[in-house]
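Q: Please design a sequence for this.
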């Protein structure tokens, strides 16, 4: 069935014979030079293997998954053949060498296709969920795209940061909110759309490349089409509403109407996962259309960290095709797709590529606190199969392990990955004085030796809201998934943070009570912070990671006011909720609008992390698994601080837990002040 390709540049195309819906699937494979025969490419999720599903191909019975079987039945035409490229059948999946070669050609296969069909799966014909969802998307698209045609608001759907900072944004947001409400969309339609975004296609890593590259080799080729069961919808009509809902902060509509029996509320996966993926695809696709292609390998690894793959090696191999051609060629030489290698070796090769060849420690920033599926990997090698919805601190553009603005040269070697994220003048730390490397890897690949500082041990940690349970807050009868409990848990964490911060204020001796709920006052304005400035400023800057919407340092005058409104709103809203009331009125709405900005900034860094205090009275965010007694380190050449834990029975070997934000030490301060205390730090 799979004779060798006659020419190295050939591909196999699946020709599906016509037939009625209930007829057996008949097809055959043909070889052709890419572009010589018009074909459509299928983007879909394989799904679990199944018994009894098969297609007759070249006279032989071939087993296929339920999802592919449903797709072929739906896409088969009744009167003419249909020519498709489908990875499961067009590639010999039993030949690792062929698979490795075809990975490098996937980019061109989808870019040269005359059409790309995104198959989301069969529809539930009894409930007609797809029809409801696609109708909702069409109605929203008409409204949102009409605003995008207005010269004043052009690009609002794809330029989120610029849109939210524009002078017209508050009035525009209110107008579009009203237009959305005027559509009078029912809860069944919102639930149908939320369920659609729960489908596996939105979480499969290969589909990113497939959707990004679709038809890019020929501007005349149509954009991809989404198909679910017998329903189909165009690209713009599908994506515009999702981008709009996200920018308008209306995506909660999807979450609030999803049945909570099959959803993990800590992840909010239906909209944050599905919509985030669509947003990333749109950005990458626009770069492809405009031929700008600034994305680098590290960026792609970060953007796709939460995606799934059947083969864990595809978390790396699936990204090759989205790189700029010269970067792709360099990566192919350094990390060629090779399915003969075991997963652990592939992940180790990625780490060596960054640390030894690119002289970059950025990969360590991708070690998150989520459960590792492959515990045999050293702690400093990211487990790319372990999904984490915690925002990487790399996005915040710090420079903890560098001498920012120093005139003393460390090295002039600056990697492309460092350039892509860090702003301002700083020296690269690819080499330390005396030509010592910033990091080395043992021959067996188990030990990573860093050069850096053991800054301080953690003395206090505050559990985040996802760790709290109703019985812990003395409300055992309240469902943990209820909005009321989520607000109570959030309020409790905030009060615990204030309590911890107030331990650094020697004059703070009181807490006031509101209806039995402990509510701490904010630190006094004149209490100093050990790393400079005041404690209250250090507190609010820590809560948002010292970054605004554009990931630059917030201006004190506007953001401290936003924090004060946030603090007041938190107290009032929790009090009203406790009495089953609501926070209403013009004053409340004004307070909400000001507080929302701070709350949004805090939600970028807080989920999945614990607020903590370290020796020396420093405020920080640490991984969720961090505890008192773990250490904060700052490594030369690292953008961020990290938390490590001493290995049992090994005084000088540590486990890497993840990244940390330490207020006052994220811009090279530790390297400048304590550089003479640099030591070797061993991670296993």
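A: Design:
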């Amino acid at each position: 069935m799979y004779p060798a390709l006659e020419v190295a540049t050939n591909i196999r195309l699946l020709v599906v014979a016509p037939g009625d819906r209930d007829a057996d699937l008949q097809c055959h494979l043909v070889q052709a030079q890419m572009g010589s025969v018009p074909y459509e490419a299928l983007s879909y999720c394989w799904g679990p293997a199944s018994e009894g599903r098969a297609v007759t191909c070249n006279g032989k019975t071939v087993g296929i998954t339920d999802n592919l079987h449903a797709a072929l039945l739906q896409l088969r035409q009744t009167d003419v053949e249909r020519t498709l490229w489908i990875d499961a059948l067009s590639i010999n999946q039993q030949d690792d060498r062929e698979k490795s070669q075809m990975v490098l050609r996937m980019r061109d296969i989808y870019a040269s296709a005359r059409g790309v069909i995104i198959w989301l799966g069969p529809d539930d014909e009894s409930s007609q969920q797809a029809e409801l969802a696609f109708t909702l998307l069409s109605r929203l698209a008409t409204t949102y795209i009409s605003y995008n045609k207005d010269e004043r608001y052009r690009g609002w759907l794809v330029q989120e940061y610029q849109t939210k900072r524009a002078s017209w944004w508050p009035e525009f947001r209110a107008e579009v909110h009203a237009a959305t409400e005027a559509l009078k969309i029912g809860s069944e339609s919102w639930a149908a759309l939320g369920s659609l975004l729960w489908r596996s296609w939105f979480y499969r890593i290969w589909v990113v490349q497939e959707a990004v590259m679709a038809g890019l080799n020929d501007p005349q080729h149509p954009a991809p089409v989404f198909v679910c069961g017998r329903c189909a919808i165009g690209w713009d009509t599908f994506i515009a509403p999702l981008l709009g809902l996200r920018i308008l902060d209306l995506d909660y509509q999807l979450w609030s109407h999803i049945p909570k029996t099959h959803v993990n509320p800590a992840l909010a996966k239906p909209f944050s996962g599905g919509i985030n993926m669509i947003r990333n695809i749109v950005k990458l696709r626009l770069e492809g259309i405009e031929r700008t292609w600034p994305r680098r390998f590290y960026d792609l690894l970060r953007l796709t960290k939460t995606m799934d793959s059947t083969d864990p090696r595809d978390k790396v191999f699936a990204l090759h095709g989205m790189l700029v051609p010269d970067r792709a060629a360099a990566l192919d030489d350094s990390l060629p797709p090779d399915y003969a290698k075991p997963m652990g070796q592939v992940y180790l090769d990625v780490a060596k590529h960054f640390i030894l060849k690119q002289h970059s420690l950025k990969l360590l920033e991708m070690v998150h606190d989520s459960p590792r599926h492959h515990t045999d990997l050293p702690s400093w090698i990211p487990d790319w199969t372990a999904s984490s919805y915690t925002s990487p601190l790399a996005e915040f553009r710090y420079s903890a392990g560098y001498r920012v603005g120093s005139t003393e040269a460390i090295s002039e070697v600056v990697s492309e990955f460092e350039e892509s994220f860090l702003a301002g003048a700083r020296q690269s730390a690819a080499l330390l004085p005396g030509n010592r490397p910033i990091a080395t890897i043992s021959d067996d690949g188990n030990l990573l030796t860093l050069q850096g500082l053991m800054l301080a041990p953690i003395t206090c940690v505050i559990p985040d809201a996802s760790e709290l349970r109703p019985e812990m807050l003395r409300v055992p009868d309240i469902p943990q998934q209820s909005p009321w409990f989520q607000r109570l848990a959030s309020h409790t964490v905030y009060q615990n943070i204030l309590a911890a911060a107030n331990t650094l204020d020697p004059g703070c001796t009181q807490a006031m009570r509101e209806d039995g709920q402990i509510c701490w006052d904010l630190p006094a304005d004149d209490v100093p912070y050990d790393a400079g400035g005041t404690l209250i400023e250090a507190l609010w800057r820590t809560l948002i990671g010292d970054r605004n919407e554009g990931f630059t340092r917030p201006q004190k005058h506007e953001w401290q006011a936003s924090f004060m409104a946030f603090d007041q709103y938190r107290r009032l809203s929790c009090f009203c909720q406790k009495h089953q009331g609501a926070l209403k009125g013009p004053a409340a709405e004004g307070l909400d609008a000001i507080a929302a900005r701070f709350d949004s900034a805090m939600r970028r860094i807080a989920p999945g992390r614990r607020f903590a205090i370290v020796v020396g009275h420093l405020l920080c965010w640490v991984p969720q698994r961090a505890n008192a007694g773990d250490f904060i380190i700052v490594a030369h050449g690292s953008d961020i601080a990290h938390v490590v834990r001493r290995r049992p029975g090994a005084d000088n070997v540590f486990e890497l837990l993840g990244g940390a934000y330490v207020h006052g030490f994220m811009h090279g301060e530790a390297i400048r002040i304590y550089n003479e205390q640099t030591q070797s730090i061993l991670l296993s």
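Q: Thanks. Anything notable?
A: Residues 260-271, 404-429, 512-516, 577-588 have pLDDT under 50 and may be disordered. DSSP finds 22 helices and 21 strands in the chain.
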